[in-house]
Structures are given as structure tokens and as C-alpha cells.
Write a structure and sequence with these properties.
The protein is an alpha/beta fold. Helices cover 30% and strands 27% of the residues. The two termini are 13 Å apart. Bound molecules: guanosine-5'-triphosphate (GTP) and magnesium ion.
Length: 166
């Protein structure tokens, strides 16, 4: 089908921000309280119907541990889209945005996910601050929860909607 689109995508962000949990929710509709820290990277795929197209996401879930940082370009180099995930601290997310703007694909669709929205008191960054940052830097922002599934499908859907050809 000529309306089918493959979207290579990468998830980046701090250790424990919930990258693997978001992917697991999206791909298997599951959540685990004690998700193991990712080693290197893990690969997933999932399809989503968007308008008249079927978008096949080919997703690299990277490891947030700093010692794997040097591997990241292998995963974002070919990516058409990225989700930058943060929970408590926003600083690492900003660094990833800068790195992608400098070294990622031009026209990369970028989403900023403020994850763990179910844990409201743990939030140190207000949604407004993240929203403003996103607007100024050409991303879109959503608060997500892998635990409750809030906005998980929606963030992938919005990425798909913003891809060229969809
Ligand atoms: P690395 O692989 O080490 O980079 O971490 P990660 O970003 O993949 O985080 P991971 O998905 O492993 O989640 C870390 C912990 O946070 C796990 O214990 C998850 O259960 C928990 N977690 C993830 N997302 C959520 C969420 O939306 N809400 C709550 N309450 N906990 C979450
Ligand atoms: Mg992980």
C-alpha cells in the first residue's frame, strides 16, 4: 500500500525516566513496576493507523546510563522521529534536544514526554515550562504516564501525524 509509512524512531532520556516503560505500554499495553534498566538498546516495532495511512514504527529504546551515551548516534542517526523522555529533571532532556538539533536529521519530528504524570508531587518541572521550551525549540510536549497509559498512544499518534507523507 502506497500509504504505508515506516518511521524509524528513537527514545532518549535520563536513566529511569520511563523510556522502556513507554515503549512497553505502546507495543504490548503492559506496565511493570520494576522495569530493568536497559543495557545498550532494545528494538521494538508497532503499527498504528493514522488517517488513511498505516505507520509502522521501528523503535530503538536506548539506555539512559551515561556510559552508553557514545552509542546514541548509532540509534538516532537514521531516525525520522525522537521522543525525549524526562521525569524529575529537565536538564538532560535539553541536552538531548541540542544534540539532536546539531547532529540528528533535519526535519526530525521531536516529541518531549514529561513522563510519570501519575506522580504529580514528584514533578519538578511545570508543564508550562516544558511547553514553553518545546514551542521555542520546534518540538511538541505531552505529559505521559506509562503506568496509567495516559497520552502514550497519543504521543506516537501525534508523531505519525507530523511525519511527511502522512
Ligand atoms: P533506562 O533503561 O535505565 O535508561 O531507564 P528507562 O528510561 O527505560 O526507565 P524504565 O522504563 O526502566 O522505568 C524506570 C522505573 O520507573 C521503573 O520502575 C518503572 O516502573 C517506573 N515508571 C516508568 N514509567 C512510569 C510512569 O509513568 N509512572 C510511574 N509511576 N512509574 C513509572
Ligand atoms: Mg530502559
Amino acid at each position: 500500500n502506497e500509504l504505508d509509512v515506516v518511521c524509524f524512531q528513537v527514545l532518549l532520556g535520563d536513566v529511569g525516566a520511563g523510556k522502556s516503560s513507554l515503549v512497553l505500554r505502546f507495543v504490548k499495553d503492559q506496565f511493570v513496576e520494576f522495569q530493568e534498566s536497559t543495557i545498550g538498546a532494545a528494538f521494538f516495532s508497532q503499527t498504528l493507523a493514522v488517517n488513511d495511512a498505516t505507520v509502522k514504527f521501528e523503535i530503538w529504546d536506548t539506555a539512559g546510563q551515561e556510559r552508553y551515551h557514545s552509542l546514541a548516534p548509532m540509534y538516532y542517526r537514521g531516525a525520522a522521529a525522537a521522543i525525549i523522555v524526562f521525569d524529575a529533571s529537565f536538564e538532560r532532556a535539553k541536552k538531548w534536544v541540542q544534540e539532536l538539533q546539531a547532529q540528528g536529521n533535519t526535519n526530525m519530528v521531536m516529541a518531549l514526554a514529561g513522563n510519570k504524570s501519575d506522580l504529580l508531587d514528584a514533578k519538578k518541572v511545570t508543564a508550562e515550562e516544558a511547553q514553553t521550551y518545546a514551542q521555542e525549540n520546534g518540538l511538541f510536549f505531552m505529559e505521559t504516564s506509562a503506568k496509567t497509559a495516559a497520552n502514550v498512544k497519543e504521543i506516537f499518534y501525534e508523531i505519525a501525524r507530523r511525519l511527511p507523507r502522512v
